[in-house]
Design brief:
The protein is of the alpha+beta class and about 350 residues long. The protein is elongated, with a radius of gyration of 25 Å. Strands 11, 12, 13, 14, 15, 16, 17, 18, 19 and 20 form a ten-stranded antiparallel beta sheet that branches. It is built from eight helices and 20 strands. Helix 2 packs parallel to helix 4 and helix 3 crosses helix 4. The chain folds into two domains: about 230 residues, P-loop containing nucleotide triphosphate hydrolases (Rossmann fold, 3-Layer(aba) Sandwich); about 120 residues, Nucleic acid-binding proteins (OB fold (Dihydrolipoamide Acetyltransferase, E2P), Beta Barrel).
């Protein structure tokens, strides 16, 4: 795969609006068949990147290639891409089938082929038999499926999705996340998906690029980005986390982070000096102080307990700051200790490989 030709390649892609720098020399390689997610806060450059790929705005400098072909000087209709927008952009006076078939008719595809492909892609998105309805007769989720079928029916090399689920309610949004992942697996088209919702990105993407200030801070699999963030911004943006400040020291042949109230083993060798360890809440465990002998961890006292339905969130005040852990309910495999009481003194511990050292 590393030697394959990228579906999309941005080389030092820069976009300026007057004195404002929206995209700062971004390099991206998106491989064929990926579900690639551009994730970041508002104004980070993710939608600008999508619009550059789609041809809706021009590059200030740099290069854009799609399937190895330079396209940054080509209009949108001459690029082998299609876009699904958040507002669907369906034609209200056309039926569902007419909306899906519109692009094929503009390209003068034969009537038989247009009919066949329209039916095929309506079936793909679960709307077989809905072809004669008007968009106004469809729910928001169904309209989103129509927009998706219309974009896919032209069988583009790349499908761009600009926060397409943003207008849906939470339950429907989660259903559509599952549907999008299924459709992607079936068609094998390269998806480039823009969102500011980290849970949405983690649940669907094969690769995530975290953006901030017009730059890509990290690119990798959802698991790698979550467990091994490149810096503090990425760690803080992608999920809840604990930051533990301390000093790295070599003790007994291993690197440890020394903090007030204890020391913890690090996942790998590290140079001595001030450092920050990141640990996700679900990886922290609690033990009574009496059972902490020989266990790497930090001493603390329970400051808050919050019942949240399927889990309990426990905040522990320690010399290294407040640490948060989550205790799932119904898990009885010996990996999670029972909840303690407010004010109890406890030992907070975790497996060394669950932490990630951050120097930035």
């Amino acid at each position: 795969m590393a030697d394959a030709q990228p579906a999309i390649e941005l080389i030092a892609a820069t976009k300026r609006y007057g004195e404002s720098l929206a995209l700062d020399a971004v390099d991206l390689r998106i491989m064929p068949g990926e579900f690639f997610c551009l994730l970041g806060p508002s104004g980070c450059g993710k939608t600008t990147t999508l619009n550059l790929i789609g041809g809706f705005i021009p590059l200030t400098s740099g290069e854009l290639r799609i399937e190895g072909r330079k396209v940054h000087d080509l209009p949108p209709h001459k690029r082998n891409v299609n876009t699904v927008f958040q507002n669907y952009a369906l034609f209200p006076h056309m039926t569902v089938a007419e909306n899906v078939a519109f692009g094929l008719k503009m390209e003068k595809v034969s009537k038989d082929e247009t009919k066949r492909r329209t039916a095929e892609y309506l079936d793909l998105v679960g709307l077989g038999g809905f072809g004669n309805r008007l968009p106004s007769q469809m729910s928001g989720g169904q309209q989103q499926r129509v927009a998706l079928a219309r974009a896919l029916v032209k069988e583009p090399a790349v499908l761009l999705l600009d926060e397409p689920l943003g207008a849906l309610d939470l339950k429907l949004r989660k259903q559509m996340q599952t549907e999008l992942a299924r459709i992607h697996r079936q068609v094998g088209t390269t998806f480039v998906f823009v969102t500011h919702d980290q849970e949405e990105a983690l649940s669907m993407a094969t690769t995530i690029a975290i953006m901030s200030g017009g730059r890509v801070l990290q690119q990798g699999s959802p698991r790698d980005v979550y467990n091994r963030p490149a810096n503090r911004f990425v760690a803080n943006f992608v999920g809840d986390t604990n930051f533990i400040e301390g000093t790295v020291r070599a003790e007994g042949g291993e690197a440890r982070l020394v903090v007030e109230g204890g020391s913890v083993a690090l996942p790998a060798a590290a140079p001595d000096g001030p450092a920050t360890l990141m640990v996700r809440p679900e990886y922290l465990k609690l033990r009574p102080i009496a059972e902490a002998t020989g266990v790497s961890g930090v001493r603390g006292r329970i400051a808050n307990i919050a019942f949240l339905g399927n889990h309990t969130r426990v905040t522990v005040s320690t010399g290294a700051g407040d640490l948060v852990t989550v205790i799932p309910h119904g898990l009885d495999d010996g990996t999670t200790d029972s909840a303690q009481a407010l004010g109890d003194e406890v030992w907070v511990w975790w497996r060394p490989d669950r932490g990630a050292l951050i120097r930035e």
